Amino acid sequence: MQADVPRLVIAATVSGGGKTTVTCGLLRALQRRGLHPRACKCGPDYIDPLFHERVIGVPSHNLDLFMSGRDDVRRLVEEGAATAARRPADVTVIEGVMGYYDGIAVSDQASTWDVARTTESLAILVLDGHGRARSLAAEAKGFATLRNPSQIGAVILNRVSRDMYPRLKALIEEETGLPVLGHVPQLDDIELESRHLGLVGADEVADLQGRLDRLAGVMEQTVDLEAVLALAKTAPALTVAPRELEPVTDRPVRIAIARDLAFCFYYADGLRTLEDLGAELVPFSPLADDDLPADVDGLYLGGGYPELHAAALEANAALRARIRHEVAAGLPTVAECGGFMYLQQAIEDAEGVPHELVGFLPGRAFKTDCLRRFGYVTLTAQEDGLLANKGQTLRAHEFHYWESDETGAAFHAQKPQSARAWDCCVTTPTLYAGYPHINFYREPVAARRFVEACVRHRVARLGGDGR
Fold first, then answer.
1. First to last CA, the chain
2. Residue 265: what are its φ and ψ, rounded to 5°?
3. Entry pTM
4. Cβ neighbours for 62, distance < 8 A, ≥ 6 positions apart
5. Given Cys at both, which of 78, 106, 150, 394 links 379, Cβ 3.0 to 4.6 Å?
6. Is 337 considered catalytic here?
């Protein structure tokens, strides 16, 4: 199938180079012009897509060439553009990850450049111009010539004053031949704060919509939006392979899903996969609700920041006891990273004070001073369990500062292009719990097993055929 999707990539030379600022500003500026932009994010990041969603009002899609194949990535671009808000997208803005060529280990595999090449999209390279001049041209030229094709089609300058911009634009265009489409000045009142896992969550930013409007108002004056749109329209039609996913049941099973400030890390396309297979996702808050939703036959505890809300989670003793009882009784449960820690005995907060949690699993989660086992892994099951049988593999990602003294040994994790490996996770026929995050869009067999387990639970609970 051929799909006409105007699109471009927003890239940078380093992490923290301004990609999210430029992406969110462009999305809001295009939206203010009456257009319907869509967004995607390269890599496994959860936080940036939440910002995209708060800007445009529809989910953003993760384009991850380790967690998903090339056909999946192209399809996700097409699906996002075609289905959101009941009308096709006018343009899809793809935010990069890390530096443009930074991929797995020291390779360019699964890098922003790899995604740009896979989706046949041109990239706008965001260059940080603070305290620099002609060196910007050298950097732009190096990035534009490292690979052929580099997919780099233009430049936007970040943290550049209005007075310096015309001179910098002229010298970069003269030295490199790349068009410079605008600049973003230093905007201290709009800057998005960071914490140990990246940007502060979108729902925690004070006056986020006001900040986005102020950012868009500036970029409407300093960025050539017509040139940005023209660049996006040069992207050729995408060749997209159809995806076939038969539902498990014609009567959706209800899966309770933790959604609040403590549990907010989910892949939107992974959730959609569960729904396509026959799940109804019913949100609840471990911070605020004293019971699970009624008549649920599954539980999904995603990642997030339980360490920052440990006291409130501890105080909700009624829900902790209910979850402990239901998981012990065989409620099919997926608990990733923060959700995994929540099922354990206790967790330290940011000040090192311990707090009791669900207590179904042994172990205590505690703060460390660095990222633990950061990056992609391939998980090989060492025993039969909810998501996989012994010997089967799943692709996953880890990203956490808090560690546990009981991480499990149901899977063997192997980092790609590395000798580093370790055992992890806890599994039973009704439980997957561990630090690695799994994208169910990339692992539809695991998703199917989860939904099938929920169907079996419903049948056992209601008798007969579960109706």
1. 39
2. -100, 100
3. 0.92
4. 40, 41, 42, 43, 44, 45, 49, 68, 76, 267, 268, 269, 439
5. 394
6. yes
